[in-house]
Amino acid sequence: YIQANASLIRITSTVLKEDDANPLILLGGTNDSINNTLQEVYEQLEEKLNLLSESRPVFITTIPVRYDQPINGPTNKELRLLNNYITELVARLDNVFLINLNNLTRLHYTNHGLHLNKGGKSKLAEIIIETIVGKNYKENEIPQDLCMNFKLKPKSFNNATIKIINADMKDVINQNSTQRNIAFAHCISADRHMSAGVAVTFKNKFGKPSISDYLSERLTLQNSEDGAGIYGLITKSHYYKKPNIKVYNAAFKEFTKDFKTKGYTHLICSPMGCVRDLIAVEDFLNNLFEF
Q1: Do 21 and 80 belong together in one domain?
Q2: N or C: which end of the chain has fewer CB within 10 A?
Q3: How many domains does the chain have?
Q4: CATH number of the domain that residue 42 is part of
Q5: What tens digit of pLDDT does each residue of 168-193 get?
Q6: Neighbouring C-beta atoms of residue 246, cutoff 10 Å
Q7: Which of the listed residues 133, 159, 181 is the one where a domain comes to its end?
């Protein structure tokens, strides 16, 4: 069914009321861009997808480019950031799959540039069908330019090893949180909002850092009852902003020093800052190699 002028969250909320086990395809987001409601997607989409995917496969598209706006202007920049976030959700949620609309070009749009033309709608249908019937679509449909897809062989340095695994952070935490020699780490904002991405997983398991957990203005450390430590690298003032690379590097440097001082021997983290915050994977790795 179709909901005219509806936001993506409104669409997902409506579908949640339906008792239907058939596969679900979600196509939305453009109206959020027009109505300036993109923030509610960051705040609510993960919860909605988790609920929807309990009973059926869920396919969600990336949000199409708006050719009625400058391609490198602020509107399309915001859409690219949100598409990065949607892709990150798909990569770690079970039973949720991505339909990548990057192959839609200017030729697929009307002269105005906001809506698809007849050829664009046919192309959209083709992309949806190919994704649903294709094999291994969850992996193949993730855009290759996202830093979360970097490929590295295990690298030894300073008598240690970087091991790359593909797993749900929730499962990794549950399996390792009783080890006192292990510390987890992730990026947070100074407002401790923690409403999207892997921060939600840490918040649900350990709660938000309290004032007493601050080691400095750039670093927090929570000590779990089970034994592991949980570092929060404070890289920006508010959750909706993007970090400055100098602040990111400074937080990572403080984290590295305290990790060694505390005597931890194993670090578990995702590519910190490389999805929503658009930190280059090279910057993350450079800090990691100095660890």
Answers
A1: yes
A2: N
A3: 2
A4: 3.40.50.1110
A5: 888 899 999 899 999 999 999 999 99
A6: 8
A7: 133
Q: What does the block give as tokens for 97?
A: 């799959």
53-96 pLDDT, tens digit per residue, is: 998 899 999 999 999 999 999 999 999 989 988 988 888 888 89
Q: 284: domain CATH number? A: 3.40.220.10
CA–CA gap between residue 197 and residue 287 (Å, rounded): 21
User: By the 8 A CB rule, do 148 and 274 touch?
Assistant: yes
What's the CA gap between 7 and 40, in Å, rounded?
Answer: 9
Please enumerate, as own/partner, the contacts of 243-251 that have beta carbons within 8 Å and a separation of 24 or more: 243/187, 243/273, 243/277, 243/279, 245/279, 245/283, 247/218, 248/187, 248/273, 248/277, 248/279, 248/283, 249/283, 249/287, 250/218, 251/187, 251/218, 251/219
Instruction: Compute how many other C-beta atoms are within 10 angstroms of the C-beta atom of residue 195.
Output: 16
